[in-house]
Structures are given as C-alpha cells and as structure tokens.
Write a structure and sequence with these properties.
This protein is an alpha+beta fold and 334 residues long. Helices cover 40% and strands 21% of the residues. The chain has 13 helices and ten strands. The protein binds phenylalanine (PHE). Phenylalanine (PHE) is lined by residues 172, 174, 214, 252, 255, 258, 278-280, 301-303.
Length: 334
C-alpha cells in the first residue's frame, strides 16, 4: 500500500510538462475524478485501523504534490505564452471592441489649472452654490442698485421676504472669497473651483450655468506685479510659452484696480481675442466687510472662465457642447 503511494510520487516527479497539451494530459491522468490520485483514495478504507492515519497522510501529500506540479507548470506556460484554456478559445478571432472611459474636457482643464496653482503654493477650497445676498453681492461691494443684482442675470431662489435674506444661485465663485476671509486669518492663498449660474439667453457663447475657478491671495505686501506674473505663468503653462495674451483694464466692484486677460485664438478663418479671466487687487471695502484689516493686508483675486479656457484648449466653438454630454464628443478626450 505504502509502496503504491510512493511509486505514484516517483512517477509524478518524473513527468515532464512542456505544452498546453501535456498539461491537459497530466490533469486527466492524475488530477481528474478517475485519475491516479483519485484511485488511491479507497486505500484509506482498506488499510488496517492502526494505519489509516498514516496512509491518509501520505495520500494527501501525493495529492498536494500532484496539484503543486500542475500549478507550477501552468504558471510557467502562461508566462511563456498563451494557453488555450478551453476548446472554444480561438486566438485568431478579432478582439471585442475596447471602449475606454475618459474624463470630460472640463474636468481635464480643471485638473490642469489646479496643478498650475498647486505648483504656485495655492490650496483648494469650496463653498455653496446656493448663496445669500450678503456673500454673493453685498460683501463684494456691489451697491444696492447694481445692475448685476437685476432679475435678468440672477436666479433668485428667495426674494423680498420680510425678515429673510435673499437667496440666489451664486452668479460667480467670488462669494467663496468672502467665506474664506471670514473663516481664516491671512496669509490666505487658495483657489476655489465651482459651478455658477446666470439667467442669460443661451447661445454658442453663453449658457445658464458654467464653471469658474476663483483665486485669492491675501498677505502683507501683495502687489499688482505678483498678480500679473501669476496670470502670465498660468497662460504660458496652459497654452505654451509662445501664447499671445493681453491684459486690459476693466471694472469689478470687488477689485481695484481691475483687469481682464485675453488670449489669442488662432483659427483657420482668422483669429480672435478670447477673454479668459477677470482679476484685480482686492478692494479695501471687501476686506472691511470680511473682517480683514485693509491697513495691514493687501491681496489679489482672480476668476477664471473655465469653459472659455476649455474651448480654447480644445478648439470647441459652442459652449453648449460642454453640457450636452454627447458621448461622440466626450469620447474624443479619452
Ligand atoms: N467674479 C468675476 C466674474 O464673475 C470675476 C472676477 C473674480 C474678477 C475675481 C475679479 C476678481 O465676472
């Protein structure tokens, strides 16, 4: 009995498995239900009572050995080439089409912009899309009758209810600046990406919702020169060191002085300037409304039009393409 087991062990050790066919042969001969290992099983029953244990142990050892040899050979063959696992496997068949998911162009551009600002030492922050009048307008130095508060531009969620603040879908990411300055003491150096809403007619250039990335840098002695340098670094890192850009004086209630940046968009039909951001030095009135001392601190703020930047980056003509979620467009960015 013991010899029978030992001889199978010797036999197993001498088997050579060189191909997928050998492997299958081995499996049938030794490991299958009617294979040589299975044939040993009845021996346990036949063994005298005092030997059952030892016979059982030895059979188990052989069984394990047979399995190990199989596993090792299989791994060796897989590493050296494909193994046909089933008769139906046909390596000459064309593969099934492989569809890979991709990031939306807006996500891609947001990631790129973030990485530029992270390199410049900015952190990230966010705030609510449903804002109150104070954060969206008043603290940002919008006079009470400023046209931007007009029903034309703003989606009011609650208006003129006695004792309750007006609620709006935020029209820009600048209210997050206010929240940051209220909750942190300078130095502050953060970017704040997010969705904003405007009640505008929908065209190729404007949509009722879009994306902005706000930037805020507040510290002692922050200068306009630093703002300019930051914007130029951004434009070069996004569009290449030979990017054509211009900075134009502008107006925002919450910055003084204010400016806008345009980037040249080269097209077959001739080029055009495309505005990508507004920026400026934080107005002292904004500091006061947020509890920051304007005699101690200065700062710059900027608001990037992410959609414009994505259109420019990927040569898209219509902002609505970014929100239709047509897979035929988006899959081009996979
Ligand atoms: N919030 C402004 C807008 O939506 C952009 C801006 C941000 C301008 C910060 C200056 C500073 O148009």
């Amino acid at each position: 009995m013991i010899e029978q087991i030992a001889s199978l062990k010797t036999e197993l050790e001498s088997v050579s498995i060189q191909s997928a066919a050998d492997l299958e042969n081995y499996r049938l001969t030794y490991l299958s239900k009617k294979g040589k290992v299975a044939e040993l099983m009845p021996l346990i029953g036949q063994a005298p009572v005092d030997q059952k244990r030892i016979v059982g142990q030895q059979i188990n050892e052989v069984k394990q050995l047979a399995q190990d040899l199989f596993d090792q050979a299989q791994q060796r063959l897989e590493e050296s080439g494909p193994v046909l696992k089933k008769a139906t496997d046909d390596l000459s068949l064309p593969v099934l089409p492989f569809t890979q998911g991709g990031l939306h162009p807006l996500s891609l551009v947001i990631q790129e912009i973030k990485s530029v600002f992270f390199r410049l030492g900015f952190t990230i922050a966010d705030g609510p899309e449903l804002e109150d009048d104070f954060h969206n307008f008043t603290a940002l130095n919008f006079p009470p009758e400023h046209p931007a508060r007009d029903m034309q531009d703003t989606f009011f969620i609650r208006k003129d209810e006695p004792g309750k603040p007006d609620l709006v879908m935020r029209t820009h990411t600048s209210p997050v600046q206010v929240r940051l300055m209220q909750s942190q003491t300078p130095p502050i150096r953060s970017i704040m990406p997010g969705r904003v809403y405007r009640n505008e007619s929908i065209t190729a250039k404007s949509y009722c919702l879009f994306n902005q990335i706000e930037g805020l840098y507040v510290d002692k002695h922050v200068t306009l020169a630093e703002l300019k340098e930051t914007l130029i670094v951004l434009a070069k890192m996004m569009y290449g060191s030979d990017v054509k850009y211009r900075l134009r004086p502008s107006f925002f209630p919450f910055t003084e002085p204010s400016l806008e940046m345009d980037v040249w968009w080269e097209r077959k039909s001739g080029g055009q300037w495309l505005e990508i951001l507004g920026a400026g030095m934080v107005d002292p009135n904004v500091f006061k409304a947020c509890g920051v001392d304007p005699d101690v601190y200065t700062g710059f703020a900027l608001g990037l039009g992410v959609d414009r930047m994505a259109m420019l980056r990927y040569g898209l003509n219509d902002i609505r393409d970014l929100y239709d979620n047509d897979v035929r467009l988006i899959s081009q960015f996979a």
